[in-house]
């Protein structure tokens, strides 16, 4: 049997030989097809399960169930019955007008919050990859307010109750009582939004856990509406009983959210005890709705009292959700940026350590608009440098310490150039380092500026050389600008001045004491380190002893 160098098509002749490469390849293809078919079934089931837990499936299920109930009942319109229309006209509309006005103001506030939140998340997501999106709660609240405002606007403008049906005529006092179908429609839209806010946004529960309470709640809302319109008294109370059973089942699922949340949520999570209050509050709110519903279906409450109760409960719940998420968002932002500042502080410690490995002194300084670079007061590094130069340095201008006028002009230009680089937008705002170690942006405009060093000399106080001129110490100075806060009012910059001396060394015993762990202290701890020469963590001579290049 002839074997080809390139794989020929499968033929009956080749497959008759078991050892033939063609037959082996054919068997491998059949096995791959079988494995692909076996793996396709779980993937299909997984996709179907994901579709079941999607909001689109919730909407389709609710519309289908409510349509089926409407077709089965086919209720009479309240506008067609004069008694029902007259009862509707007796209900005052001033409360609906107040609700539209108040909720419109809250809607405007949420719109502004959504815009500002989106802008903030978009700008900080590159710098803080773990920051969670804050836009979803605001978006859901806006949708909820728009639906609620639309409902009350219809109540305010519509004198003809086309949006209401007539209570089933069973020969009692409830005959021709208006049943506001529009209110039940608003509940079927807004209640899932409330559940998503309480379960997914506040407690972090996945959608597969939110699906059951959402569907159960929407289904028992439809059943409670059907109980008011059915012409069978036993069927009415059976539907009422089923409604409360479904409410209890949905409430148990919501309580399970809270239990799982407390088991999984981190102790450092912001508003850890406030978040479950939304779920527990919804359970209490739906119970209050049920009490008002029972009083209305038994005739204890009038139509006006029923409307006032439902309106008060609905508006109060939505305002409570808005206030709660304002508190959650505010605390989240504070915690996020506090954590970011702590990480930046840790990074700053590493950068200062790098500076100390190449320079002898690291001094925080203030630079004003004129370019004057003032040294700090009480810094341990400053006291060490002052002891070497033999003159006090606290609060003095670095430029005044230089040896001659030419070096002062060069230093002023150096300060001006450093500040100009820092003021550029791309210098500090767009230059971000990714976790992989790459700078953001593929072009050179997003790279941070290259560090520069000025070689100059520092004058010593009261010491003269053989020619009668003040003695100087050769040094290298590096300036690094500390990013300024966006809300800083003063036109002042903070810089870190790193100084490296040439031809000057400390005594061996003192140098060893400077790197002793017990003597390593913060340069800003003035009171505890007063009079101590322990501000330097390491000198260039120490780096050389460790085998590194000085």
Structural summary, described in words:
The protein is built from 16 helices and seven strands. With 550 residues, the protein is of the alpha+beta class. The chain starts with 11 loop residues before the first helix and ends in a 5-residue tail after the last helix.
Mean pLDDT: 76
Question: Order of strands across the biggest sheet?
Answer: 4-3-7-6-5
**How far is the N terminus from the C terminus?**
75 Å
Tally of individual helices: 16
The fraction of residues assigned to DSSP E strands is 5-15%
Low-confidence stretches: 1-5, 10-16, 40-47, 439-444, 507-550
TL;DR of this structure?
This protein has helices spanning 12-15, 21-52, 55-73, 82-89, 94-124, 135-157, 181-202, 207-229, 233-264, 275-297, 303-358, 380-389, 405-423, 425-428, 508-514, 540-545, and strands at 165-166, 178-179, 361-367, 373-374, 454-464, 470-482, 493-501. The chain is an alpha+beta fold and 550 residues long. It starts with 11 loop residues before the first helix and ends in a 5-residue tail after the last helix.
Chart the SSEs and their pairings.
Blueprint: H1 12-15, H2 21-52, H3 55-73, H4 82-89, H5 94-124, H6 135-157, E1 165-166, E2 178-179, H7 181-202, H8 207-229, H9 233-264, H10 275-297, H11 303-358, E3 361-367, E4 373-374, H12 380-389, H13 405-423, H14 425-428, E5 454-464, E6 470-482, E7 493-501, H15 508-514, H16 540-545
Antiparallel strand pairs: 1-2, 3-4, 3-7, 5-6, 6-7
